[in-house]
Design a protein that fits this description.
Layout (H helix, E strand, L loop, with lengths): L11 H22 L6 H10 L4 H10 L8 E3 L1 H10 L13 E3 L4 E6 L9 E6 L4 E3 L4 E5 L3 H15 L3 H12 L4 E5 H4 L21 H7 L4 H10 L11 H13 L24
Parallel strand pairs: 1-7
Antiparallel strand pairs: 2-5, 3-4, 6-7
Length: 278
């Protein structure tokens, strides 16, 4: 399943149907795990072994939630490249495997599929007038991870399952705290903290749980996560041959939007327009 786009008005009726599904999925998730005390990895194995994988179902349902338009963001590098290779289309209209027509022949660093190591990076020529999938180059990165939202919803359900109306409102509010950033896949590969981001925030301990943090905080969650997880990114996952490192550095020096491929330098993902809401 793919992330819902922000190119059209939110369909309230479908959102409510999706909320029904999320509540059923979290009910099943809790029913399977409520009597278990295993580590998280063991819980996932338990869920996979069940007749219905409620963890997967819940995660995919969360990904389908149509978040407020202001909760979508784009990195400066992604926007710069997008303007270079497209004509009049807005990047906000595209996600996942949707295709666009390349407006200018351009060399672009690409990863194959979900590979994350820079040894799998290839500088590929994208031809003018040819069609390409959006996710060959870009990614819609959940700045607030789906797993964090899931954990908050699970706690919310446990607290309010006896009050259906309140439960729906609370879960809806949590889902609307999600933020997604369109960025280059090469930028995404520079990120070091990919899960449990809420727990890394300096203001988190005073709330004690993800659910309470998302419910009560008045801080700008998105901006705080950007500072913590998108800034001053070092790359130490692998060692590359000097020849390859120099190739990446040379490319980065001649393409302002490609600074992220110079893994010998610290990199920060700069957001084109920082929102002020949670």
């Amino acid at each position: 399943m793919k992330d819902i786009k922000n190119k059209s008005a939110i369909d309230t009726e479908k959102q409510e149907l999706l909320l029904d599904l999320i509540i059923v999925a979290v009910k099943g998730f809790v029913a399977i795990f409520q009597n278990k005390e295993e580590e998280e990895e063991d819980l996932e194995d338990t869920c996979k072994a069940a007749n219905i994988n409620f963890s997967y179902l819940l995660g995919q349902a969360i990904r389908q939630w149509q978040i407020p338009e202001d909760n979508w963001h784009v990195s400066e590098a992604a926007q710069e490249l997008w303007k270079k290779i497209t004509s009049d289309e807005e990047i906000s209209r595209f996600v996942y495997k949707e295709t666009f027509t390349c407006a200018a022949t351009t060399q672009i660093p690409c990863f194959l599929g979900t590979k994350r190591k820079f040894e799998a990076l290839n500088i590929t020529t994208f031809e003018e007038k040819e069609k390409y999938a959006f996710n060959e180059i870009f990614i819609s990165e959940h700045t607030i991870p789906v797993s964090d939202i899931r954990d908050a919803i699970v706690e919310c359900y446990k607290n309010h399952r006896s009050f259906p109306c309140r439960l729906r409102g609370e879960i809806r509010a949590i889902l609307n705290k999600m933020h997604i950033t369109r960025m280059l896949k090469v930028e995404d590969r520079r990120i070091n903290i990919n899960t449990k981001r809420i727990a890394t925030l300096s203001s988190y301990p005073q709330y004690g749980s993800i659910y309470k943090y998302l419910k009560y905080t008045t801080d700008n969650i998105y901006e705080e996560i950007c500072k913590k997880c998108y800034s001053d990114l070092e790359y130490s996952k692998e060692r590359l041959e000097n020849e390859k490192l120099q190739e990446y550095k040379n490319f980065a020096n001649t393409h302002s939007w490609a600074k992220s491929i110079d893994i010998s330098s610290i990199y920060s993902i700069i957001i084109e327009q920082t929102k002020t809401n949670n």
